[in-house]
TrEMBL record:
Top-level taxonomy: Bacteria, Bacillati, Bacillota, Clostridia, Eubacteriales
Signal peptide span: none
Protein function: Catalyzes the reversible oxidation of 3-phospho-D-glycerate to 3-phosphonooxypyruvate, the first step of the phosphorylated L-serine biosynthesis pathway. Also catalyzes the reversible oxidation of 2-hydroxyglutarate to 2-oxoglutarate.
Protein name, entry field: 2-oxoglutarate reductase
Domain annotation D-isomer specific 2-hydroxyacid dehydrogenase catalytic: ranges: 3-300
Catalytic activity: (R)-2-hydroxyglutarate + NAD(+) = 2-oxoglutarate + NADH + H(+)
Species, as recorded: Inconstantimicrobium porci
Amino acid sequence: MKVLLADGLQKQSIDELEQLGLEVCSKHFDASELGSELKKYDAVVVRSATKITKEVIDDELGGNLKLIIRAGVGIDNIDVKYAESNNIAVKNTPNASSISVAELTIAHMLSVARFLNISNVTMRQNQWNKKKYVGCELYGKTLGLIGMGRIGKEVAKRAAAFGMRVIYFDSLYNEDIGDYKFEQFDDLLKKADFITLHVPYDKKRGALIGKDEIEKMKDGAYLINCARGKVVDEAALLEALNSGKLSGAGIDVFENEPSTNVELLSNPKVSITPHIGASTKEAQQRIGREVVLTLKDFFNIGDKVVIGV
Ligand SMILES: NC(=O)C1=CN([C@@H]2O[C@H](COP(=O)(O)OP(=O)(O)OC[C@H]3O[C@@H](n4cnc5c(N)ncnc54)[C@H](O)[C@@H]3O)[C@@H](O)[C@H]2O)C=CC1
Ligand SMILES: O=C(O)CCC(=O)C(=O)O
């Protein structure tokens, strides 16, 4: 049984796969060669860098591939329908990184509220902008959370611990969840001081937050996107930051990655990270364990193991 790790995996999990007798190759391929390479493998494990498109699957057809594992949550980099229609199963590791992404979301909120991002730049340029960087507390502010799933719930808990009032919108629910008050989408946009996004990207819908939605937000609000880049229209966001409509934005994910949107990346009101929501030792360990378990279950090899989280 051969497994390709197209975007790496933590070492302990690679060792476990080898102990199970799997032949493991850790190598990243360009889109042009990926499909034909995949013919040799029974399973492939990807993070977000590798895209398994219809074209890649077409190039693989007639090969051995039976399973694609997304070592992460979002499966928008995989043509799931097309894979499944060609008898290739698609699995992910949905629970492993929720806490890491939630913590990064809170970090971006603090970063923009207290000028951490820009202080880190300007102090290294010998500037002492003590008077300029007058921020705001999270305490007492309203967090409008869009997407109350696994990550959203972890963000809500942490925001509540900071003394924030949490309101949320989610297309699955329409009732308050404990102290978290459900609001219609437009009402949330109007009421929130901070808005954080925790939804998958829906290609058919396009950007959930564009010019019209930003227009409805409070003047001086902050927007945090640790979900998917295309959930926010970057041009509209930039315009709102430049006009002063928004006070700041925290961004882990970009319309195109790696991002080359220099205007956005260099904007002093923006706190940026290079899509590292799941990049903690703990999340990667949990992801590795889930990948091993998924492979064991799918190919029915070795004893069942209990995954600790
Ligand atoms: N920055 C990073 O490294 C990471 C980003 N993510 C992103 O975070 C997203 C959320 O992850 P989870 O919380 O685990 O997913 P989840 O499936 O547990 O929660 C998503 C929630 O969003 C809701 N939703 C979907 N479309 C919506 C819409 N248009 N409006 C309002 N609500 C909507 C769903 O009903 C669901 O409750 C993932 O889809 C992924 O894109 C996930 C992991 C790491
Ligand atoms: O580790 C990655 O590739 C990014 C994580 C992510 O965005 C996800 O799990 O959806």
